[in-house]
Specification:
heterodimer, A: mainly beta, six-stranded mixed β-sheet, three-stranded antiparallel β-sheet, about 45% strand, B: mainly beta, four-stranded antiparallel β-sheet, globular
C-alpha cells in the first residue's frame, strides 16, 4: 500500500490561507469518507485536527477545515498564524489489507 | 482528560523481540478501539495495527503482520505491542492512539486517532 501523496512543503504569510492536498486512489480517499488530518510540531506527538473529511474535534480552531473531491482530500488553514508552522499528515481508511494509510507529510512554513 | 502514557522501547538486536505498553487514563478505555503507529526518523507516519474495543479482533499492516502482535488488558487499562523478528527498518518512534468509540478493529465508525501517547523510540541495531 503506497502512502497518500502530499506536497513536501507549503508556505504562506501570516493572515493568508493555504491548502494542503492529499491524493489517494479509489481504494481509499475516493471510496470512504474516513479521512483525517494531523498536526505535528517538532519532537511532539501528532494531534488530530480534522476527522471524517470535514469534522473538527472539540477545541480545534475553526481556522482548520477539510474537504474532499474524488480521490483528493484537502486541508485549508485560514488566517495563517506562526503557531501553525508544523508538519501535517493526512490519513485514510483503505480497502487494502493494511486498513489505514497515511500521507507522506507536508511541512508548513509561515513566512 | 484522556491521556496515554507509553513505556518500553530501547535498543534491540536484529532478529530480537521487544514489547511496548500504553497506559490509558481519563476515559473509558474498554469502550474504544486502539491503534499503534510509528514514525521512522525524518519520515512520515505508518499505521501498524488496530485492536477492537473488547480485544476480540485485531488487524495489521502488511509490513508487520506475522511479526507484531497487538493486545489489550481492559482490566488494567493497558494496550500492548509485542514485536518479534525485528529488522533494522523497524527502527522508529512508536505511538499508541485511541481509536473510534466501540470500534470493531475493522471498518471504523469514525476515522478517529486521538489522543496519542508521547511516543517511544525503538532502535534495531547490532
Amino acid at each position: 500500500q503506497s502512502a497518500l501523496t502530499q506536497p513536501a512543503s507549503v508556505s504562506g504569510s501570516p493572515g493568508q490561507s493555504i491548502n494542503i492536498s492529499c491524493t489517494g486512489s479509489s481504494d481509499d480517499v475516493g471510496a470512504y469518507n474516513f479521512v483525517s488530518w494531523f498536526q505535528q510540531h517538532p519532537g511532539k506527538a501528532p494531534k488530530l485536527i480534522i476527522f471524517d473529511v470535514t469534522k473538527r474535534p472539540s477545541g480545534v480552531s475553526n481556522r482548520f477545515s477539510g474537504s474532499k473531491s474524488g480521490i483528493t482530500a484537502s486541508l485549508t488553514i485560514s488566517g495563517l498564524q506562526a503557531e501553525d508552522e508544523a508538519d501535517y499528515h493526512c490519513n485514510s481508511f483503505t480497502s487494502s489489507t493494511s486498513l489505514y494509510v497515511f500521507g507522506s507529510g507536508t511541512k508548513v512554513t509561515v513566512l | 482528560q484522556a491521556q496515554l502514557v507509553q513505556s518500553g522501547g530501547g535498543v534491540v538486536q536484529p532478529g530480537g523481540s521487544l514489547s511496548l505498553s500504553c497506559g490509558a487514563s481519563g476515559f473509558g478505555f474498554s469502550s474504544y478501539a486502539m491503534h499503534w503507529i510509528r514514525q521512522a526518523p525524518g519520515k512520515g507516519l505508518e499505521w501498524l495495527a488496530v485492536i477492537s474495543f473488547d480485544g476480540t479482533n485485531a488487524n495489521y499492516a502488511d509490513s508487520v503482520r506475522g511479526r507484531f502482535s497487538i493486545s489489550r488488558d481492559n482490566s488494567e487499562n493497558t494496550l500492548y505491542l509485542h514485536m518479534n523478528s525485528l529488522r533494522r527498518e523497524d527502527s522508529a518512534v512508536y505511538y499508541c492512539a485511541r481509536g473510534d468509540y466501540y470500534g470493531s478493529g475493522y471498518y471504523p465508525n469514525s476515522n478517529w486517532f486521538d489522543p496519542w501517547g508521547q511516543g517511544t523510540l525503538v532502535t534495531v541495531s547490532s
